[in-house]
Amino acid sequence: MIAHDKQLLDDLALLEEANSLQNAGFISKEQKDLIKKQLPDFKNQKYILVRLGFFLLGSFLYGSICGAISIVGMVGDELYFKICCYIFAGVGFAGAEFLANQKYYGHGLDDAFILGAILNVGFAIGITTDGYELIIAIFMAIAAFVMYRRYLHLPSLLVFCLASCAVLFYGLFEFGEIGKTILPFAAMISAAGFYFSTKKSIHSLTESYYYNGLLLANSFCLILFYLSCNYLVVRELSIMLLGNEILPGTDIPFAYFFYAFTLIVPIIYLVQALKTKDRIMLWISFLAIGFSIYTIRFYHSVLPIEVALTLGGVVLFAIAYFSIKKLKEKERGLTFKPDRINHSNALLNAEALIVASTFGMKPGVKPESSPMEFGGGGYSGGGSEGNF
Which UniProt keywords apply (predicted)? Predict the structure, then answer.
């Protein structure tokens, strides 16, 4: 099913480990370069801006091919306009397969053809079904999952997660008012089920090249679980989908549950992240806490905004200060010491840049050694010894 050579995928995992060990100081750059020479590698791009540039170039190439086909196809009757997106999707699949055979993996060019194929599948089904959202979401989810399994393309997996949510939502819409009413609970249960399923798959994983995909799906489930029963999301969707008019002094059904869910779940995320040392869950918990505060303030402004921001800053400063004081001397577990594997010199480089720009300092250049050697200097003349 996978288009790429599995041995190359294993070698890529080894190269990533070698880069991590070099950044941590366990091996030297020469040792890492030696490992890289001995292991074949894909044509990929690690720098996001360069990859984005190749993606734009690939999109232009993809569009040029589809445009050339359209010039020929428009000569025919109106049938072409009904099948053109299927042809464009086929071009995307063919281009992705060709680039995979040329060992392009996460390069940017392959991104354009893979995502273009998925997008054209959605357009094609939309034209055929007159914009039937549920069918469009189903076929886009299938296409995205096939692309991920075939090329291990992480953006395609993200499209699959979003399309799967659309399938759930539009599927419940088919049941009318009942489906729209139980939508938050159905999304919450589905997210929890897939979260534990992906977590179990990660623990029992034997093929390392599936790890990033499972981690992405697992993190997506955490976000979906929180948003599914967030009070602000549920209330606004109930107004939008059900047409409920919430009068002053009234509230949505099960409001206390959604309030409690909005406040408790981010704290559970935070505690679990600190307990398991899960960095991604920790960041998600911070974002969830911030969105929960925004949710409460959106409907209940207890303090003026300037007072609330000031008090919030004081509280965050106090938490950060005492946390650093408590953790800075710890050597194990949760600690404030830099991570040897995932450290960065960005702050140090930024500090040096600020100092240099402030005082107008320029890097010192060591002058080339002069071929004429001066010595002595018993008197004021350079190199003079008091004799000829």
Answer: Membrane, Transmembrane, Transmembrane helix
